[in-house]
Amino acid sequence: MIGRLNHVAIVVSDLDAATKTYRDVLGATVSEPQALPEHGVTVVFVDLENTRIELLVPLGDGSPVSRFLEQHKDGGIHHICLEVDDISAAASDLQAKGARILGDGKPKIGAHGNPVLFLHPKDFHGCLLELEHVGG
Ligand code: CO
Fold it and tell me: What CATH number did the domain enclosing 97 receive?
């Protein structure tokens, strides 16, 4: 079912500082900040040869990453995103196997314009998993 690693997402306490670290210390190509109000985050993409890293900070009230940052003051790895070629089929299959989809259970449009959904970390050994639809 799962394909390539699409990204690793890291919640940071200071997006400008994190951007500078990846760009100036590590020499990576980084994007401009992108506000995603429907996900409650502002994102910077770090482009790597084989995948990318997303640096996240909370945006607005009730951001899903605010609580994470309260618990991890310096930030930390928040989720990994795996590609699937049919997110609806993947969602039905996973639910049939007892996995819980966060939120209303329906895919939302993610940072790259593709449908995404998140799976409960308790069902995946402590790791929040995002699935991103990359099929046609
Ligand atoms: Co993500």
Answer: 3.10.180.10
